[in-house]
Specification:
This protein has a domain of 114 residues: Arc Repressor Mutant (Orthogonal Bundle). By secondary structure, it is mostly helical.
Length: 200
């Protein structure tokens, strides 16, 4: 197709302004001022300048360690004082001869425990243990359940002395240390009680 030719404009048309500025005649607007933050670049500290020294930071105080309590030296056990006492279990059996005499009293209506308790109380009051160990005497005894049993406070140093002299390995009880002294005394008291009750 043949190109369409442009219409040539001749003269001036009053409807259009002929005094419009050309692009080349337009003055360019000045560029916006740089932002203050961008306009003023930061100063970089040079290595040659004096360096700023930070103040030394004091180290945090350490908590004071609480001193450990001093342990007291162990004190060796000292021997018991002479006036210290120890409760000792005392026992005494009755012989078959005593058992027969008690049976006679039972036949008269007297309780079997009466002569044993009376003799036991009397023996405890009279009992004064010595520092000399005495072996349990040989006798034809009845079971211990038929005998007499009680407790008494005895000098602790005396018992320790008896054990040191006669039981160095600590195999016997305090009762065994004193039975050889207490049982014969109980028998003597029981003989007296049985005789008194038989006469009533």
């Amino acid at each position: 197709m043949p190109r369409k030719q442009r219409t040539a404009i001749k003269g001036s048309d009053p409807k259009y302004h002929s005094n419009l500025p050309r692009k080349s005649d337009q003055t360019l607007q000045p560029a916006l001022e740089p932002i203050a933050s961008e306009a003023a670049p930061r100063k970089i500290a040079s290595d040659s300048g004096p360096k700023r020294r930070d103040k030394p930071v004091a180290p945090a105080p350490r908590p004071k360690a609480t001193p450990k309590p001093k342990t007291k030296p162990q004190v060796t056990a000292s021997p018991a004082p002479s006036d210290a006492t120890r409760e000792v279990h005392l026992t005494a059996a009755i012989t078959r001869v005593h058992g027969a005499a008690i049976d006679n009293l039972v036949a008269k209506g007297i309780d079997r425990k009466v002569p044993i308790r009376l003799a036991g109380r009397k023996a405890v009051q009279l009992f004064d243990p010595k520092r000399e160990f005495i072996e349990k005497p040989e006798a034809d005894r009845l079971p211990i359940r038929d005998g007499y049993q009680t407790t008494k406070r005895v000098n602790a140093e005396l018992i320790d002395h008896l054990r040191t002299e006669n039981d160095p390995y600590g195999l016997s009880s305090d009762t065994a240390m004193l039975r050889g002294q207490f049982e014969p005394l109980f028998w003597k008291c029981l003989d007296e009680v049985l005789q008194e009750l038989a006469q009533k």
